[in-house]
UniProtKB/TrEMBL annotation, chains A, B:
Pfam families the record matches: Iso_dh
Entry keywords, A to Z: Magnesium, Manganese, Metal-binding, NAD, Oxidoreductase
InterPro entries xrefs: ICDH/IPMDH (IPR050501), IsoCit/isopropylmalate_DH_CS (IPR019818), IsoPropMal-DH-like_dom (IPR024084), TTC_DH (IPR011829)
Cofactor needs: Mg(2+); Mn(2+)
Location of the Isopropylmalate dehydrogenase-like domain: 4-353
Record-linked PANTHER family: D-MALATE DEHYDROGENASE [DECARBOXYLATING]
Listed EC numbers: 1.1.1.83
Reactions mediated catalytically: (R)-malate + NAD(+) = pyruvate + CO2 + NADH
SMART domains: Iso_dh (SM01329)
Native species: Kwoniella dendrophila CBS 6074
Name assigned to this protein: D-malate dehydrogenase (decarboxylating)
Any one GO molecular function term: D-malate dehydrogenase (decarboxylating) (NAD+) activity
Family from the record: Belongs to the isocitrate and isopropylmalate dehydrogenases family.
Length: 360, 360
């Protein structure tokens, strides 16, 4: 089987971690005979340089062009000193999510070997769950406005929109994912005790959908106490599903609780494959360390691993995952990057993982 | 000076921790000659028993009656097996917040001696900040509705409303609080990179208000990464201000990060004193342990401490705080309640603290 991937490194450390991600993907493709096309013609797309030169993050016709790929392998975007984030992000990443209907955002929260956990007394295996986030509607709407501007009576209204289509499809994905895991346990993030229209509707749809998944154990927590449980008892969770905003919060908090926020990946998925899905590291462009060659490439590599897994290349994905784990656990001081206590470089860690992928 | 307080223990362990809170307040009042009235005629108000008998949580005329007090000292409400939370809470606590315009919710996030911290490597003094939450508007509005019900085109709209009055007054409170503290550091919770109308408005008002507080160092974080920093570097914070929803989340997450969610207090404050303010423990009615006499009374006592502090009884409040700390640090096995590793009871811990208040 084949996989066609558009490679967009973007800004800052995106350009540095991308070659390591590509090297690992190539090693996996070679070993498992995957017909993998990694198209690198998009080096200057979704960069702030381009925005500064041309006034837009992407060239005309970007949508048609990218539509022909199965996936986008994305680095990072942003140069906040020169271009405000709402321009660079909304002009690239957020636009991809919407226009390619990547209605699932998927992020692992997993304790990794060799990565210190900020929570006390947790060991490998204790924390290993997924956050599934609705990625297109909900609290992120542009409907609303301001009344009585510049007076003391001024107020703004911002609409949250939840559609049956939008809610049901993310719930379905989350139920399917839960059903495929040994624990079959789904946690829904809500706030129906305070937010009285949208969140009760969310709960109602969860209840309805649960009827089609009798084997999945479902529970719900209000978002306030749910964030507390992420810290106090993260071992409670298997799959957690939330609205656009709640999912956004939980998918930063989850990786923070495992200490892996600097190395975690993220999938922006169109499950039907009608449009390309996008895989990226959670970390941003990190202007402060860009150009120094010390960025940790694991987020980029792990994003590649998620991409192979999503498209069904299970053996290759498993080998990539094990290689990442071995490197984090036993990679020596000269291999590890400074953020995880070493003196190595982006390249030393990246090529170590690539060589593990070829040989373990 | 005098203070008139309406005492409402409510449901479950509210009835058990209240006597300990009252004993400690009486000890403080006696020692510091405070003319403190603790009116206990409200024993059956805001109880689910009352709701089951009469169909409402509060008697008629409750508002006029409670309006004559400076403060409400509140236990906990809820018997979810018999009365749904949205009835018991919206019929009591949430109604008080709205009708008494308690537009500030204030909660301490503080590492306490003798309470294990779920974060690794934190010591006393590392975490000591306040969360200030807007408590009347924002995401908790009842405006919105459903379109195309029971069809596949069904959707709901829920409005978030932020008024200049509502936003400015909570910001003013937060700036004043920051200004009164040594670090003079205020952190604003936002999400203006994703939620495009209400949150940029919030940011705009923060910027405007900051002009009147030149000494206060202000920064802002998006809510997703802010929750991550609560776990990774809670020592960054001094005062954190957020909208109704963001404040709700942060004021559960903060106490969770210090391990004190079971003993933390909460103030629902009308700063002008036009209406009574309400002080309560963060924990709920805990039906599972109610009636066993083992509830931890510290949240209730600490809420009383916050009440005295709010009304300017500084010496008494300081002594209460030190007494709580001493009890948590050195109270023996027979004094501590089971939740903090002892074999004691609600009463053993409560009366130990009361006696410390009288004598330290
Ligand atoms: C019970 C619920 C409506 C309430 C809130 O969200 O305000 C609670 O979580 C709180 O923080 O007091
Ligand atoms: C940059 C921002 C708009 C974005 C979001 O909130 O979706 C980010 O936080 C993310 O999670 O990818």
């Amino acid at each position: 089987r084949s996989l066609r991937v558009a490679v967009i490194p973007g800004d800052g450390i995106g350009q540095e971690v991308m070659p390591e991600g590509l090297a690992c993907l190539r090693a996996a493709a070679e070993r498992y005979n995957i017909d993998l096309e990694l198209d690198e013609q998009f080096k200057d797309w979704a960069t702030c340089e381009r925005y500064l030169e041309t006034g837009s993050m992407l060239p005309e016709g970007w949508k048609e062009k990218l539509s022909t790929y199965d996936a986008i392998y994305f680095g990072a975007v942003g140069m906040p000193e020169k271009v405000p984030d709402h321009i660079s992000l909304w002009g690239s990443l957020i636009q991809f999510r919407r226009e390619f209907d990547q209605y699932i955002s998927l992020r692992p929260c997993k304790l990794m070997p060799g990565i210190p956990c900020p929570l006390s007394n947790k060991k490998i295996g204790d924390i290993d769950f997924w956050v599934v986030r609705e990625n297109t509607e909900g609290e992120y709407s542009s409907i609303g406005g301001k009344m009585f501007p510049n007076t003391s009576r001024e107020f703004v209204v911002q609409d949250t929109i939840m559609t049956r289509t939008g809610v049901d499809r993310v719930l379905k994905y989350a139920f399917e994912l839960s059903n495929s895991r040994p624990k079959k346990h789904l946690t829904s993030a809500t706030k129906s005790n305070g937010i009285s229209i949208s969140m009760p509707y969310w709960d109602e749809r969860v209840l309805e959908m649960s009827k089609s998944y009798q084997d999945v154990k479902v529970d719900k927590y209000h978002i306030d106490i749910l964030t507390a449980w992420f810290v106090l008892r993260p071992e409670l969770f298997d799959v957690v599903v939330g609205s656009n905003l709640f999912g956004d919060i939980l998918s930063d908090l989850g990786p923070a609780c495992t200490g892996s926020i600097g190395i975690a990946p993220s999938g922006n998925i169109n499950p039907e494959g009608d449009w390309p899905s996008l895989f990226e590291p959670v970390h941003g462009s990190a202007p402060d360390i860009a150009g120094k060659g010390i960025a940790n490439p694991v987020g980029m590599i792990w994003a590649g691993q998620m991409m192979l897994e999503h498209f069904g290349f299970k053996d290759a994905a498993d080998t990539m995952m094990r290689s990442i784990e071995i490197a984090l656990e036993s990679g020596g001081e000269n291999i590890r990057t400074p953020d995880i206590g070493g003196k190595g470089t982006c390249q030393s860690l990246g090529s170590h993982i690539a060589s593990l992928i070829s040989k373990i």
